[in-house]
Amino acid sequence: MRFLIVDDSTTMRRIIINTLNKVGYQDCAEASNGREGMERLAAGGADMVITDWNMPEMSGIDFIRAIRATPALKDLPVLMVTTNAAKDDIVEALKAGINSYVVKPFTPETIKEKIEGMLRS
Amino acid sequence: MSQITEDLLQPLIAATEEVFETMVFRKVGSKTPIFGEALRPTSNVVGTVGFTGERCGLVAFYSTTETAREIAGAMLGMPAADVNGEMPDAIGEVTNMIAGGFRLKLAEKGETLAISIPSVTIGSDFYTKYASDVQRILCPFRMDENEICVELILTRN
User: Fold this and answer.
1) Alpha helices, H only, A1-121
2) How many CB atoms lie within 10 A of CB A6?
């Protein structure tokens, strides 16, 4: 299972990778914004994307829209991990095309449950 | 005119406790909040996130450099002594998550706020001055042997 972690914070990328390692997923690539994320996906692909919302150059929402507009990526599972957790935020992210949503701060159990739920559906 | 009352203070304290327990893997214990322009603790690291909406203001995080390194090390899974360039980003994330948690708890009560990206100031012998037309409350927390503080700064209009 290959993950692509997209977040402008190196700390948050490291935390997410440590969390994934803890729950049994070892293969993780990183990108610091949506544009870099698209480049990574074009170059090598991933089985699941975990992305932040607020990022420079290309936000998480624009990144997800770009993924859904790319025929080869349109079914790629995307999990958003963000502090934007108001009802309107979640509606906007769902409209953009996320599969699931985790609010920061999070526990490893929450991440594991969300990933497993996405893999089941 | 906005006032800092329990309905704002409790979400801020709860958000801080949640962030430290789940992302820093440390229990923090809240101490008695300090209203107004009381003497501020010595801090070399200050993270801030602004918010606007029905109320406007700032959430600020304060710690010493040593404590900030310890927090960053705990978040990243590395010894505090090995932390260097990662610390500002880690403190920005801590401040962002506290402000985000505060925002979410107010949203659950029907109040909508937008928050800014975090900024972090690091140095010594500096003083953060806010406009006079603000109300402030400083919430100190004990983290092991160290103290951290989270402040809510609210514009009066």
Assistant:
1) 10-22, 34-43, 60-68, 87-96, 108-120
2) 31
Amino acid at A65: R
DSSP letter assigned to residue B145 = T
| pLDDT tens profile A29-83 | 999 999 999 999 999 879 999 999 989 999 999 999 999 999 999 999 999 999 8
**Chain B residues near residue A33 by CB distance under 8 angstroms:** none
Evaluate whether B50 touches B57 at the Cβ level (below 8 Å). Answer: yes
ipTM of this complex: 0.86
Cis peptide before A105 (omega within 30 of 0): yes
Greater pLDDT, B130 or B89: B89
| Cross-strand partners of B137 | B35, B152
8 Å CB contact of A105 and B93: no
Under DSSP, the state recorded for B24 is: I
Distance of CA B146 to the CA centre of its chain: 15
